[in-house]
Specification:
- The chain contains six helices and no strands.
- It has a domain of 70 residues.
- It is mostly helical.
């Protein structure tokens, strides 16, 4: 029984490391961090930005796994939610920019006139889905 638990822990840890490494490699490859450094004219600090992104991922994973009680620091949750939303939005826009997702999608479905409506509906759907998830989780 103990051997099975140790094996499951090693597999879970290894899988998490591989997934996190792939995600951060994708973020760096898409140029999200480099683009931010370029736009803010702080390209000399790009290694610091990459280290901060990696440490943020590690901290997020630790918070997700151990789920510590926030106590009197609960007021920071909206700040975290805002920063996480900005991060996900920037990552999605960088991915869409690199892969030209929207033009290909529009051209394939032959929908040129209502493009703004489709993009807004996708954003609203994502937001409503996240809201439903959070409400059900409480």
């Amino acid at each position: 029984m103990l051997g099975k638990q140790i094996l499951l822990a090693v597999i879970g840890l290894s899988s998490g490391v591989v997934i996190a490494g792939g995600l951060f490699a994708l973020i760096v490859e898409l140029g999200v961090i480099a683009d931010f450094a370029d736009r803010t004219h702080t390209a000399d600090k790009i290694l610091l930005y990459e280290d901060c992104a990696a440490l943020g991922g590690v901290a997020g994973n630790l918070l997700s796994v151990f789920q510590p009680r926030m106590g009197y620091l609960g007021f920071l949750l909206p700040v975290f939610g805002l920063l996480a939303g900005i991060f996900v939005g920037c990552w999605a826009m960088a991915l869409a920019e690199v892969l030209n997702v929207f033009p290909i999608f529009i051209r394939r479905l032959k929908i040129v006139r209502c493009t703004a409506v489709f993009i807004i509906s996708m954003a609203l759907g994502r937001g409503i889905g996240a809201l439903i998830y959070l409400i059900r989780r409480w």
